[in-house]
Amino acid sequence: AQTVTQSQPEMSVQEAETVTLSCTYDTSESDYYLFWYKQPPSRQMILVIRQEAYKQQNATENRFSVNFQKAAKSFSLKISDSQLGDAAMYFCAYRSAGDDKIIFGKGTRLHILP
Amino acid sequence: AAGVIQSPRHLIKEKRETATLKCYPIPRHDTVYWYQQGPGQDPQFLISFYEKMQSDKGSIPDRFSAQQFSDYHSELNMSSLELGDSALYFCASSTRLGKNTGELFFGEGSRLTVL
Prior knowledge:
The structure holds two protein chains of two kinds. Chain A is mainly beta. Chain A is 0% helix and 53% strand. In chain A, a hairpin with a 2-residue loop joins β7 (60-61) and β8. Chain B is mostly beta strands. Chain B has one helix and eleven strands. Chain B has one helix at 96-101; strands at residues 5-7, 10-13, 19-24, 31-37, 44-50, 53-57, 64-68, 74-78, 87-94, 105-106, 110-114. In chain B, β7 and β8 form a beta hairpin. Chains A and B meet through β6 and β11 of A and β5, β9 and α1 of B.
């Protein structure tokens, strides 16, 4: 069975600084997708960034980028120039190609310090 | 832009009662997903539908059932409610292509409290 592990329950970062959230996963599949979702206090889940396993190039979306290490099964999220609005719970997630279900990690709560 | 609409937003039920949650996907989205998120927990996949047929099934209790209707809206029916069913229930929708790219759009959730 696939699993997603986020080892940092909470993190804090100063506004305008950079922070990296860690995620590891376990799978025997070769074709899959990885995601980072953000859940602010409003509770709505918002897709931050996604990575296809067959792509070697790390995905980037504005201030958000990932470090995808397929062999190590690691998928960390880097947030640059942190802003107060980035404060939220961040979930790392996995989905096998062909499956509907997304498997979420336990989440990392990110605090932004003004 | 239209988003995924869930109703009701909040629901309070007694043990052993029945509850029905509704989800209206974004127009032209043909796939609907249901997730359950307990307090302080990560979301758990329950079930999904594509073109009104069950597409995938996760950890959905036998007491729960769901379906997708001809207008693509979906309903999650929960019977014999237990205290442990208290959770935030998310519905998400996507196109079939969007599923592959992770473009799931989540609703704001329906919070069920079982007393």
